[in-house]
Amino acid sequence: MHRLSLLLVALAGAAYAVPSPSPRSAHILHEKRVMEPTGWRQSRRLDADRVLPMRFGLTQQNLHRVEEMLAAVSHPESPAYGKHYSAAEIVDAFAPSKTTIDEVTNWLVGSGISRDRLRLSINKGWIHVNATTSEVEELLKAEYHVYTHPSGVEQIGCHNYSVPAHISGHVDLIKPTVHFNHRAGANAAGKIRPLPNIVSGPKLTGQAATITPNLANCNKMITLDCLRALYNIDYTPVSTDKNTFGIVEFTPQAYLPGDLDLNFTPSLVGVRPISVLIDGAVVQNTSQSFNFNGESDLDLQYGMGLTAPQPVTLLQTGDLFEGAGFDNWLDAIDGSFCTFEGGDDPEQDGIYPDAVGSPQSCGIIKPPNVVSISYGQDEATASAAYANRQCTEYAKLGMLGTSVVYSTGDDGVAGFSNVCLDKNGNEVGTSGKVFNPEFPATCPFVTAVGATQINPGATVNDPEGACEQVIFSGGGFSNIFAMPSYQANAVNAYVAAHLNPSPYPPGTFNTSVSRAFPDISANGANYVIGIDGQFGLVFGTSASAPVVASMITMINDARIANGKGPVGFINHILYSPIFAPAFNDITMGGNRGCGTPGFNATAGWDPVTGVGTPNFARLLEVFKSLP
Q1: What residues act catalytically?
Q2: Is position 606 annotated in a ligand binding site?
Q3: Does 334 count as an annotated binding residue?
Q4: For binding Ca(2+), which residues are annotated in this chain's numbering (predicted)?
Q5: CATH 3.40.50.200 occupies which residues in the chain?
Q6: What is the pTM of this model?
Q7: Distances from the Cα of 604 to the Cαs of 391, 468, 548, 559, 610, in angstroms?
Q8: Which end of the chain is more exposed for a tag (fewer CB within 10 A), N or C?
Q9: Confidence band of 383 (pLDDT split at 50, 70, 90)
């Protein structure tokens, strides 16, 4: 991939000469806050001379063609299957038009902001200008306030803002404005942070602490051998020098080297992942507990164990001071997305360089062929503009040949900590009755992975059920994203058979034509991991995601060995009826939450386990047969 730095260039160049001013039009509402901040008070108006780092996200070209372009290289019946785009082709296809750049620039200049104050990112996606509060309020017909939390944390923003009607179609979003996603106590800055989809089980003591893998105990303790037996995995990678597999972790989550050596693969003792440190990241070992080491230990032990001897790249993201959001790791693998001083959400993403001088990582590594991420956030805490812009980036990665795998959450139809919504879409805690889906799993351009279990008393040879031990597989329907065409037949069949009429009151979940998830599942219960020097059990879709990602990695290995390329976006394959024999349909269990039984697993696709779990050997043959 071409490395595209985000050096900012002046708009004054001849290539971006601004035409004479366009006729003025009346302002219209462009964005309003997703939800009012709970526990905060509007304390005062922002000082008129306060300088704000304004970022104008320009509307990209051809966004209406994203699904079409992705399908062209991902659909098994497409003549262009596997012929992925280059990075330069992606930038050229989606860069905002000269008309969009000119119109927004002309509006800003016509409003009294001199052209020499404006900067355009090199991918043409963002215009940046430092402006005073009084200038911005006049520009956006908005009022900026300071909000204060009892903890002393402050946030600035406006409730809503407007732009001229003729500008609205040229701007996706403007920051800082309405995006109020602070949660006091989330970290030192009070920001939303990606949370791991993992729950701790008991530490193993006594005889259990010296575990010998045994298929007879897989209903109580999942090991690598259990997974190989469950999903018919018998493959050793041979193209490891050409293949790539990345696992994302967010600081301060970090693995402990000694824990990796407790894995059940003797050849991996002493082997460590290839660490790519993003935005000042460190693989810290000073804070040691399940909350600091559990997620990373799990992801790496099973990702490395299943794909050995494939090297695994650890995309460790964020420093100990600033932390990181989903946009930060995307910045690191795609310089054209890197938007420091151009669009990272200051409430959700680390803004680098930060107060301690951590450098910004922008396009520092080519996207791995597969990336596994076992973190998420409640979709309700992301604005539609923020979520859509990020989701489009996942589509672009698919076009480049990268498979992006996300876990779906551990609270069934509820959000993190069983938080649900009210009828207005606001998070109101466990008393809410409206389902609360998880992002980025709801993005239609990622592969969302739910969780199954070996039922108590069952064996690896028996059908699995939806995970109902300790955690419940996240699933349901997005409140932001429309249903992609690849899943329409499967999801509509489920809705007609099981939700018409709905067993729940109107408004309990999104009954419009929206993105449904998960896409696929894998076991998420009773995983044995080395944690802080001893064995313990963990549960979560955090386990399911790296298992599915590992299988895609091995499929890529086989294709590369046959002179073919990586599979990239796989969802068209997952939902194709022709390939249904490659999956184990899950028909038992549910994903309760929000005071309801949630949805039920049933024959065919369902919003608990998706299309089911993989039969690796069959799935491998499917992908090997494709160009």
Answers
A1: 295, 299, 542
A2: yes
A3: no
A4: 585-586, 604, 606
A5: 195-625
A6: 0.88
A7: 26, 19, 19, 28, 8
A8: C
A9: confident
